Amino acid sequence: MKKKLLIFSKYIAFAVSMIGALNWGIVGLFNFEIIRFFFGAESFLCKSIYIFTGICAIFCASFAVIDCQCENEYLSKFDK
Q: I want to staple 2 with a disulfide (CB 3.0 to 4.6 A). Which of 24, 60, 62, 78 is the partner?
């Protein structure tokens, strides 16, 4: 069960990180921030989304350094 939860959380973190990357790509190309447009420039929700996106990116980066063999070994610890 823990293994499935970890895999699911990795997919969610990856998706959120990609959406954040697309947002910053649009900022770079068009100088337009989608998150601020929808949620307000200085709103708590806007800041929360940016913080959550950063946490997801850190989570993804922590797993980017683990190759396939090490990942299978690491995930097998959660099968207990």
A: 78
SS3 65: coil
* 80 has a pLDDT exceeding 60: no
d(CA 39, CA 35): 6
- Report the alpha-carbon distance of residue 5 to residue 7 in Å, rounded: 5
Q: Residue 31 region, left (φ>0) first, then alpha (ψ -120 to 50), else beta?
A: left
Tens digits of residue pLDDT in 24-54: 999 999 999 888 888 887 889 888 888 999 9
pTM: predicted TM-score of the whole model, two decimal places: 0.69
What does the alpha-carbon distance between residue 55 and residue 31 come to, in Å, rounded to a whole number? 24
Distances (CA, A) of 23 to 1, 28, 40, 41, 73: 33, 9, 15, 14, 35
